[in-house]
Write a structure and sequence with these properties.
7-stranded mixed β-sheet; 11 strands; methyltransferase
Length: 257
């Protein structure tokens, strides 16, 4: 996660033109599903990891959250977030997700959008989040789907006429660093299997409430060119989990490892 392309002027300019940057949550193709997976924010303390322009932070406050902390490594991102956020209950901090102080029982809800595939270890972040959540606290996040990240370059295979033939999946069980081109820049990401995501939660004291591989909604399918190709492979993985109220001794020991 400590690689930070977003403070590069050219890259940030390109990112700022994306639908999810311009239109906010309604410009994010997965939002119509993710929104339904979020818990009740009323009176809750919320932590947003990789908050970007602050759209989820704003949403949480608008839906009753008492306080929201947004973490992002990019000062340019946070500069935009502060411009867009009219609420004093939102606090933004510029730092890597790995460097945040996850104090015990300090948050009721932790959310994250498309950030954890930049982290090398999912188990490590799960342990930290488990530590900072209150008992029964909610953890909801999105990541790039393992089928999307496995091969690495995140590009279709094309025939000689430029038609999309298929999406390559290779080295699925070889987890680790991958290099993809995003907005004209090489970006480092970390491929993880679905097993790693699920067991990372279960082995650190969470219970899984819901798992969704979202498809584009009908409006996007009918209005955005090439969107129907998104039905040919999953691009994202959404998971809702909850910190267990009671844990067995072996689960407590596993979290400490």
């Amino acid at each position: 996660m400590k690689e930070n392309k977003y403070d590069d002027n050219r890259f940030f300019s390109q990112y700022s033109k994306m639908d999810r940057s311009v239109e906010g949550l309604k410009g994010a193709g997965e939002w119509y599903i993710l929104q339904k997976m979020l818990p009740d924010f009323t009176g809750k303390r919320v932590l947003d990891l990789g908050c970007g322009f602050g759209w989820h932070c704003i949403y949480a406050i608008e839906h009753g959250a008492a306080h929201v902390t947004g973490i992002d490594i990019s000062e340019k991102m946070l500069e935009e977030a502060r411009k867009r956020t009219p609420f004093s209950q939102v606090e933004y901090k510029c730092m890597a997700i790995e460097d945040f102080d996850y104090r015990p029982d300090s948050y009721d809800i932790v959310i994250s959008s498309l950030a954890f595939h930049y982290l090398e270890s999912f188990a490590d972040i799960c342990r930290k989040i488990h530590n900072c959540l209150t008992k029964g606290g909610s953890f909801v996040f999105s990541v790039e789907h393992p089928i999307f990240t496995a091969y690495g370059n995140q590009e279709w295979y094309y025939d000689s006429e430029g038609n999309r033939i298929h999406w390559p999946v290779d080295r699925y069980f070889t987890e680790g660093k991958r290099t993809a081109v995003f907005l004209g820049e090489e970006i480092s990401k970390y491929h993880k299997t679905l097993t790693t995501y699920i067991n990372g939660l279960l082995q650190t004291g969470f219970e899984i409430c819901e798992l969704v591989e979202p498809q584009p909604d009908e409006v996007m399918l009918n209005t955005i060119p090439d969107m129907k190709d998104e039905l040919r492979r999953p691009m994202m993985l959404l998971i809702s989990a909850r910190k267990k109220v009671e844990m067995q001794t072996n689960e407590i020991q596993a979290i400490g490892k």
